[in-house]
Amino acid sequence: MKEPVPVYLVGTGPGDPDLLTMKASRLLKQADVVVHDRLVSPAIMALARADARRISAGKASGRHELDQDEINALLLRLAREGGRVVRLKGGDPLIFGRGGEEALFLRAHGIRVEVVPGITSASGCTAELGIPLTHRGLATGVRFVTGHCREDTPLALNWASLADPDTTLVVYMGLSNAAEICARLVDHGLHPATPAAALASGTTSARQDCLGTLHDLPARILAAGLRSPVLLVIGRVVALAGGNACQLPELLGLPGFRALPAAAAMEHV
């Protein structure tokens, strides 16, 4: 019996086709079947062969074309049918993409899996604005968390741990709970004037950015009418957006620094 070819879990990055890896582009062009998420851009899907079968497994809040068990079963069936199966995911398949769950399921059923990493939105969207996720004297590390829980259950994050002024905090899927996230971080010790950003549809033509502080970011998001997907970035490094370095002496003194002036808390929409 011929051994099934692998299922490829491929990250497409944050949306810009130019940010695809060469391997991702090659596999997409060779695929017989492409199972894609909602956030995979049309420009990236256009790289697939014209005769490739396309199956949407998109998910939005409260609206799933297929639930995770159905996606797992679909991938297994397609793998057993033969042909080259590419599972396309936005960003990186192993960062809040459930790629790990799909890989474990397929391997448990004897299917080989190859993971092709993608540029995660935390890197792609912040790089576009010139925000370094780490920076000497401002942030010694970075943490990625999700701001949206299954079935809209309450957030159960370790707020005391996340409220670290020496770390950049990146919250994926943070739009619906932005006000709570900002308030909880302030309650657990971060200064209200800590720089913060909301980045929507980064690296695409639909991009929108709001720059502010933990105190005013939720209001700025509402005023700008940002739509999902939205990434929240919180920490001193946000003040460096656009190459702004004039506030470095004050930022080094967080949490006791004085509030940033309007020029450092500007809004780009």
Plain-language structure description:
The protein has 269 residues and is α/β, with parallel strands linked by helices. It is 27% helix and 21% strand. It contains nine helices and 13 strands. The longest helix is centred in the first third of the chain and has 14 residues, at 68-81. The radius of gyration is 20 Å and the shape is elongated. The chain starts with 6 loop residues before the first strand and ends with a strand. Residues 256-269 have low confidence and may be disordered.
What labels describe this entry?
Cobalt-precorrin-4 Transmethylase, domain 1; 27% helix; 5-stranded parallel β-sheet; 269 residues; 2 domains; 9 helices; 6-stranded mixed β-sheet; 21% strand; elongated; alpha/beta; Methyltransferase, Cobalt-precorrin-4 Transmethylase, Domain 2
Describe the secondary structure blueprint for this structure.
Layout: E1 7-11, H1 22-30, E2 33-36, H2 42-45, E3 53-56, E4 59-60, E5 63-64, H3 68-81, E6 85-89, H4 99-108, E7 113-116, H5 121-129, E8 141-146, H6 159-162, E9 167-172, H7 178-187, E10 195-200, E11 208-213, H8 217-224, E12 230-234, H9 248-251, E13 267-268
Parallel strand pairs: 1-6, 1-7, 2-3, 2-6, 8-9
Antiparallel strand pairs: 4-5, 9-12, 10-11, 10-12, 11-13
